[in-house]
Structure formats: C-alpha cells, structure tokens
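Dear colleague,

Thank you for sharing your sequence with our group. We've completed the structure prediction you requested, and as agreed, I am returning the results in plain text so they can be pasted directly into your records. Please verify that the sequence below matches your submission; if there's any discrepancy, let me know and we will rerun it promptly.
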Amino acid sequence: MRISTQMIAFNFLRKYLYDFVTSVAQNQATMKQLTKILFLIVNCTLLINNGMGQNLVPNPSFEDTVSCPTSDNQLYNCVGWDAYSSPDYFSTCSSSPDVAVPNNWGGFQQPATGDSYVAIGVFGDTSFFYSCDSSSCNSHEFVGRFLSTPLAIGVKYYVSFRTSLSISNSLSVNCAADKLGVKFTNGQPSFGVPSPTLISNSAHIYSSTLLTDSSGWSMVHGTFIADSTYNYIILGNFFDDSNTTTQIMDGNTYCNSYYFIDDVCVSTDSLTCVNSVGINDTPFNQSGFNVYPNPATNQITIENLQLGDAYEIQIYNSLGQLLYSDSEVHTINKEIDINTFSNGLLLINIKSENRNFFYKLLKK
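Please find the predicted structure tokens below.
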C-alpha cells in the first residue's frame, strides 16, 4: 500500500505539533521554535491545498459528457473541455460512425482508458483543419481546460498524456509529427482562429521525436518547475509548421497530422501521472499473458498463454522513462534481464492484436 503525500504531510506536521506542545508544557518553548512550527503549518497547508499527489486535470480521460457526440467538432459535449478551432470528441456512446469508438473516421482505436477520447490536428496542408487566407497559416487545433487548483510557483510538476496517430484515407490524415505537447497559461486564451498566442514555438512539455504509433498509445511526458500560478492547460502543437518535423506514413504526397488524445495528467507526484495513465485493470490471466516473479530482482519471465501470437513489450520506470523495448516477440516464454534497472515500481506494457495490457512489477 502506498502512503499518500497528504498523509505524510499531516504526520510530519502532527509530530512537530506534538513536540511543540510538549515543549510548552515544560516551559521550554522559544521564539525560534514557535517560528519553525508556524512555518511548517503554513507550508504543509499550502502543499495539501495545491493538490499534492493528485491529478490536477478534471475529467482527464474525457469520460464525463453533457451528451453523446453525433458529429465532428463537438467537444462542447465533453464536460469542462474547451475547443480551439475544431477538435473532435469520440465516445462509445455515440451512434454516429464518424465519432464512435473504437471504429470512426480516424480509423480503429480503443481508448487508453475508459470509453472516450478526443482528437486534434497538429499539422496540415493549407486550410486543411480550418480555412485561412495565408499560405502558411499553421493549421493546428487545440484542446484546453481549467485545472482544479492553480500551480504553485517553485514546485516541480509531472505532466503526461497519451496519444495515438490516426491514419485514415477517408479523413486524408496520414502524417506523423513531433512537437505535440502541453502549455500552461494564466486564464483562458482567446478563441481566435488561428491563434498567434498559442503558436509561439515554445511549450512547457512537448515531444522532440516523431510520434509514429498508430496501433497503440504513446506517452508524452516531462517535468517543469512552475514559474507562475498557472490555472489553465492546453494540448496541441505550439510550434509553427517550419519548426515541426513530419513523416508521411503512406504513399500519398499530402501531409496531414491528426492525433487521438487520452489520459491527461498534471501532478506533483510522478506515480500519480505514470500510473494513472493507460492502466488496464484486466487481470493478466484473462489477457493471455502472465508475468513472474513479482517482486523480482534479476530476471522476469513473460509467458504468452496465446501460444505464439506475436506481441510487443515495453518497460517503463516510475518516471515514465523507457527502459526496455522489443517490438517483435514470438517466444512463449520471454525472459528479460532487469538486474541493471533501479529498484522501484516498473510498468510493463504488452501490445497484442491492437490491445494494450499493463502490469505493475516491483524491482527489488
């Protein structure tokens, strides 16, 4: 059982309050002690009130709906989220083939978590995602919302979200891109299209590599120290087209990049974001795989109970850093040396036949 950060803070404060009261009872309290206790009270209160250990993004996987989407450009049906240009909202509750889940006009994709996700255009040929007069209008879309609590200046935050590339002939999207990321602002930006305040060639967190996975979900993550009391989060490509690297994934000559987004997380606790993102609670004996031993020290074995179907393995540490990857596994029993991995929680991602399974393992 993992003790919450709030409980640690309360216990820390309780200990010092007890020592202080004892000191007063013995007539030994000094002004220095009193100042120290007051400082601790203020700081513990601030840490707890600023969401220590919690995800500060309400409705992070887009599950809460006003009503089911029936067509494109209906992010207003997702509670709390704002649209910049015309991002799209997809849900299993939709009866429309365009915005249903898992099959929709963007292709086939199961949610990373729950029943819903959104999609945004991050790079496009002139006027693809919206109409504009300029030959270089940076055809980008964004989604954003208010945080549950403003960020605290000087505090380190962990940020992550899941994304999957859409490749669809019907929608004419076929191009991988980098630079997809997160920006924080003080208040809600204007809804101007295009928005020069959003495309500024800078972001707090962004991917510096091409995001090419169209079958599963990739994690974009990072950390930063807040320099302002930001209270609003925006996701998209904040770099203009000349500073965005792309790669056409099919034989067409055009290049339009469209990405599904799910599981947005902002927290002071790395485990909150890493472990709240894309976790599938299906037991492994029902998923067709088994992992043992757990805990482990030197080596683990991944047993494929499906008897030979190819699968992919990725292993992450608690910070979301990729430690191991094998994209084509055919053996029934796959042995992996984890001796050089640092002790702590490991997250094992197994992808098989367009399905994602996650397993938590303790390295000792």
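Summary note from our side: The CA atoms of residues 152 and 229 lie 5 Å apart.

Kind regards,
the structure core
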